[in-house]
Amino acid sequence: MTHLSSAAAAGIYHYDEIDRRFLAERVEQFRRQVARRLSGELTEDEFKPIRLMNGLYLQLHAYMLRIAIPYGVLSSDQLRALAVIGRRYDRGYGHFTTRQNLQFNWIKLVDVPEILADLAAVDMHGIQTSGNCIRNVTTDQFAGAAADEIVDPRVYAEILRQWSTLHPEFSFLPRKFKIAITGSGHDRAAIAVHDIGIRARSGPGGAVGFEIFVGGGLGRSPFLGRRLADWVPEADLLGWLEAVLRVYNQYGRRDNIYKARIKILVHEVGIDRLREQVEEEFARIRGPKYRLDPEIVETIRRHFAPPAFAALPAVSPALEQARAGDPAFARWTRSNLTPHRQPGYAAVTISLKPTGGIPGDATSEQMEAVAALADRYSFGEIRVSHEQNLVLAHVRQDDLPALWRELGRHGLDAANAGLVGDIISCPGLDYCALANARSIPLAQDISRRFADLDLQHRIGPLKIKMSGCINACGHHHVGDIGILGVDKHGVETYQITIGGTATEEAALGQVVGPAVGYDQVADVVEALVALYLERRGEGESFLQTVARIGVRPFKEKVYGAAA
Amino acid sequence: MARSGEEAKVVSANRLDTGVVVWLGDGNVWVERVEAAVPLSGPAADAALALARQSVEARVVVEPYLVEVTVVGGHPQPLRPRERIRALGPSVRPDLGIQAGTVG
Amino acid sequence: MALLLKDGQPVGDSWTHLDDAAGAVPEGPVIVSLDRWRRDRAALITRNTPVGVRLKSNQLAPEIAADLARFALVALEFPRFRDGRAFSTARELREHHGYTGEIRAFGHILPDQYQFLVRTGFTTVELPDGAGLASWRHALAEIDVAYQAGVAGDAPLSLLRRKLATGPK
Q1: Per the CB < 8 Å rule, is B18 touching A110?
Q2: Which of A108, A242, A349, A400 has fewest C-beta within 10 Å?
Q3: Partner chains of B (3+ C-beta pairs under 8 Å)
Q4: d(Cα A559, Cα A156) in Å, to the nearest integer?
């Protein structure tokens, strides 16, 4: 059955004329700022934080523009607009990031005012995707769809997005500030490794409250977040966040950029002292001004109302039949589907990790294809996961065979979601001015080693995460297998870790052994996986095996028994 | 001017308006291919960097810096992988960048 | 002589910054550093002329809270425009301590920060030398919608949005 949906049905926050006025003014403001830069009125030193606050970096080859995809949700119209921008102003492809944003790598400064105007026409922007300010609030890519969801985090992510936009007090923080929120017991938003991590919970009478963690983060000094509060009532959410940000703005270190994140403040003063300071500040500001009005929450929640689901049986005979008839399709359904709260539906992960491909990259044509598929099969709505894949959240199980065939026509049908071929990788030395080592070609090599999908499925869920430098944009600390590229005397060298995870059981990976050269990394990964297959217990995940047998057997497998 | 096989330095930067990678060539003109950059050593390299900073003042380029090169057949080639990738284009997209004959 | 800006317009300045090293305190309203205030507090009080205090970015509101009634002016330094601590200090002085005197920003500040200054409670800005007055004037008028309530000068729109008094007409 075909059913066309317009983007108006998409579960995104639909801008009104006030939001649009703000965005138009912001675009004009940046147009003027670019002119002032080109005329010399602003030096590069003065312009840099301004352009960063609009998402514009100077990277290895050109300017890079990071476009905000608020909590990873966009409409088909928006995705189509991104495709057009990529074609018109860039090289016809974009890169989806580990913070649910999109990056274009070949941007010209002189084009940016027009690009921002084109983005504003579809209610998009690059506001605060960089700079020492509050960044994109990220969330679960299955928000509003997952069967295990308790509270839909999107409504609060949107509230936090608005609250943090051009905040007058918090736009010149000691360092960047990242917030993530989950509404499910199973954390798919990696809240444990964010400056503020929030778990939305349901209390007596269905009241919503929040568990708040602070001081998580990766990079040079990785830390897991510490619990700041167990239950912050919905009405106090903004007040609490104001209090945390105010304490951070005033007491975060400004003498050393490597010690300027809030995780260092937590580490240095201790979580108890920080909590005292936050509670003191919250007590001072408690009152109507910072109270989150439940009517506002309700109004914004309506933007995220469930779409017009059809009443369907829980099991789709068409799906079962297609599975029985096509092993390749059946295999894809085993890896790329997530149970949906609505009977007869499924959430679909579109893998952007074809064998030997560049993780997270999509061409303009692929973006347009996904937009069309979203219109046809998922109410005009697409999500971006922080693992660099796309999601169609509300697909009828009946439609899955047709969808899969369509995905196949565009190279988007890799049956590897969450498997070893679904590699998360930063752009690395091929694109990034901060990188020390290449990451993408290694990801491609590893991907080719595991090209056999049956092998991938036999291995089961296993996340490989790769970073080309210590800044850890590839989240290597929290990969089942983590790979960190470093520069050792001018030679690309790679440190391997195992046992990391960013779920509710968050853990940082442990180093396996001495760093290895570029040519050895894929061999090491194969050895680690082989050992896991040899030693795993019945139904045991990679993480569970590591926890049970420790790092030593893995080390011996990789480096030899003498290790 | 450095001789073949020797190590030397060139000045590199990005154009302010387009972000395109450029190198300081003959006559202190900014060129788009590293092969056309002028290899220098010692005080000459530092002087060239100082000159490049004038280009920053003049709003032509941003972030000039010195890149170590080896001179092969009279033409400089960057030593480090990072600078080679910057000179050529992403190693994973041979269809993009200077290596593909496209500029920026 | 730095230009003093209030509500986007240059205004006369009756205050003098006093260096720590300077000996005698001149006539008229003076702004002294926190150190000097602590050293010469009694003398400055009995002087019976308006006195202001100058804070570095790491000197926060609690340091002057007890003496706030004595200060007709508080000057907050931006050593680098990236150091945003003074935004919090100004806000705290207004909202927690109810300070109603002049709060002045000085140091290295960009016109692009002007609206943030106004919204966190600053009254005046000492423009850096060579500052483009046009850009400073324009900065207040660029954006008139905000998503947070400031200290003053905005009116509610719907949801979280506020209409700024100083925006485009």
Answers
A1: yes
A2: A108
A3: A
A4: 48
Instruction: Describe the crossing of helices A262-269 and A271-285 by its angle, rounded to 10 degrees.
Output: 110
The pLDDT value given to residue B7: 84
> Which residues in chain A are contacts of C60 at CB distance < 8 A?
250
Q: What is the pLDDT of residue A4?
A: 42
Tally of CB atoms within 10 A around A404 = 20
CB-CB under 8 Å, B97 with A37:
no
- Domains in chain A, start-ordered, CATH in brackets? 7-120 (3.90.480.20), 145-302 (3.30.413.10), 317-409 (3.90.480.20), 424-559 (3.30.413.10)
Query: Are B21 and A91 an interchain contact pair (Cβ–Cβ within 8 Å)?
Result: no
Q: Which of A373, A440, A377 is closest to A412 using CA atoms?
A: A373
A interface mutation test: which of C92, C112, C162 has the most A CBs within 10 A? C112
Burial class (CB in 10 A: 0-12, 13-18, 19+), C20: exposed
Dist CA A281 CA A268 (whole Å): 19
Tens digits of pLDDT across chain B (104 residues): 555 667 899 999 999 999 999 999 999 999 999 999 999 998 999 999 999 999 999 999 999 999 999 999 889 999 999 999 999 999 999 999 999 986 65
* A2: pLDDT strictly greater than 80: no
ipTM of the complex: 0.97
Strand order in B30-31's β-sheet? Answer: B30-31, B21-24, B7-15, B61-72, B75-78
Of B21, B59, B93, the CB nearest to A40: B59
Q: Which amino acid is at A517?
A: G
Q: Which of B21, B56, B79 sits opposite A61 (nearest CB)?
A: B21
- Is there a contact between C158 and A18 if contact means CB atoms under 8 Å apart? yes
Shortest Cα–Cα distance, C21 to chain A (Å): 26
Q: Which residues pair with C106 in a beta bridge?
A: C77
Q: What is the pLDDT of residues A43-92, one digit of tens each?
A: 999 999 999 999 999 999 999 999 999 999 999 999 999 999 999 999 99
Instruction: Please name the fold of domain C4-141.
Output: TIM Barrel (3.20.20)
Q: What is the pTM of this model?
A: 0.96
Q: How does pLDDT run across A355-377, given as a tens digit for each residue?
A: 999 999 999 999 999 999 999 99
How far is the alpha carbon of C54 from chain A, nearest alpha carbon, in Å? Answer: 17
Model confidence pLDDT, tens digit, residues C98-133 = 999 999 999 999 999 999 999 999 999 999 877 888
Instruction: Give the residue from A430, A439, A447, A487 with the most B CB atoms within 10 Å of its CB, the best one to mutate.
Output: A430
Query: Is A235's Cβ below 8 Å from some Cβ in B?
Result: no
Interface present between A and B (3 or more CB pairs within 8 Å): yes
Q: Least CA distance to A18: which residue of chain C?
A: C145
- If you measure CA to CA, which chain A residue comes closest to C157? A18
Cα–Cα distances in Å, from A214 out to A231, A349, A398, B52?
A: 14, 30, 43, 44
